[in-house]
Specification:
Layout (H helix, E strand, L loop, with lengths): L4 E4 L3 E6 L9 E6 L1 H11 L4 E8 L2 H12 L2 E2 L3 E4 L18 H6 L1 H6 L2 E5 L4 H14 L2 E5 L5 H10 L2 E5 H8 L6 H12 L5 E6 L3 E5 L4 E5 L11 H14 L4 H15 L11 H7 L5 E2 L3
Parallel strand pairs: 1-4, 1-7, 4-5, 4-6, 7-8, 8-9, 9-10
Antiparallel strand pairs: 2-3, 10-11, 11-12, 12-13
């Protein structure tokens, strides 16, 4: 199956515990992990998506693979790793991390896709191989996060088309604090000089900077009733990637991405619930042009 987007990242069981006074008053175990959350968001937006990740060779792993298929996510390159338990959000055994061998096995889909999202919570060698394969094939490389290894970070940035970081990760990469929009603009300019044409930088409590090759915009955070912030960043990255893969203008992509992040905070758990109607309801009404 051809995939417009391939996601290389974590798959895990996500336990959502409802409030004691909720009608059901119970916990639910869902398909989760950053990779699965992003893949699901892409699927909900109508994008053909495949997931490269690892589960244990156990009943939980089988259940997560089945749930992903039901959510229209390609699972041909979801590895069942013998001798390990499937990860739980907050408890990720090393054996459930993606290896270079896992990535190499998915070289075909990565090379054929329009975009690949590479999560840098995965081991740096595997992330770097995925980025190299994509770059060689002309596939858009979207990096999510920052590598703490300076050598890997430099090469990953050089291979990237898009980088998404929060203010803490931007400080890790630039060695400069990011506390406001001016700091974010300077950090994004620094990162863009190292390779990516688009830097997406979230400033906690304020909004998100989209620093592109021609223009940069700061999109203030959407005011909404926040129930659970988990998964907002995953929804943002997935929606941005979907819009760029479908060749939407950057200004439009930025507004849709911020709306998706806001929508995902409106319910418990990180599992997205995206649709065109949701994104239109929460789409930001103003953008601020920013100069570094």
């Amino acid at each position: 199956m051809f995939s417009e987007v391939v996601v290389v990242g974590q798959i895990a069981r996500d336990l959502v515990v409802e409030a004691p006074d909720a009608p059901a008053g119970r916990g639910r175990e869902l398909l989760g992990g950053k990779g699965a959350n992003q893949a699901l968001a892409l699927s909900q937006l109508g994008v053909a998506v495949s997931l490269v990740g690892v589960v244990g060779q156990d009943a939980a792993g089988d259940a997560l693979r089945a749930r992903a298929r039901a959510d229209r996510i390609g699972t041909s390159h979801v590895v069942r790793r013998p001798g390990t338990e499937t990860a739980l959000v907050g408890h990720v055994p090393d054996a459930t991390l993606v290896t270079e061998t896992d990535v190499l096995a998915a070289a075909g889909p990565i090379s054929a896709a329009g975009s690949v999202i590479v999560q840098l919570q995965q081991p740096a060698p595997a992330a770097l191989l995925a980025a190299r394969l994509a770059r060689t094939a002309g596939t858009r490389v979207v990096l999510d996060g920052a590598s703490e290894d300076a050598e890997f970070a430099a090469e990953l940035l050089a291979l990237a088309d898009v980088v998404h970081v929060d203010d803490r990760e931007a400080e890790l990469l630039t060695r400069e604090p990011v506390t406001d929009v001016a700091d974010a603009a300077r950090a994004a300019a620094d990162l863009r000089r190292r390779g990516p044409s688009l830097v997406v930088l979230e400033v906690a409590g304020q909004g998100t900077l989209f620093a592109g090759p021609a223009e940069s915009w700061f999109v203030p955070a959407v005011e909404t009733e926040v129930v659970d912030p988990a998964g907002a960043g995953d929804a943002l990255v997935a929606t941005l990637t979907a819009a760029l893969t479908r060749r939407r203008p950057l200004e439009t992509a930025a507004c849709l991405a911020v709306a998706a992040a806001a929508a995902t905070t409106e319910h418990a758990g990180a599992r997205p619930r995206l649709s065109g109607a949701v994104l239109d309801r929460l789409r930001p009404r103003r953008l601020e042009t920013v100069h570094a």
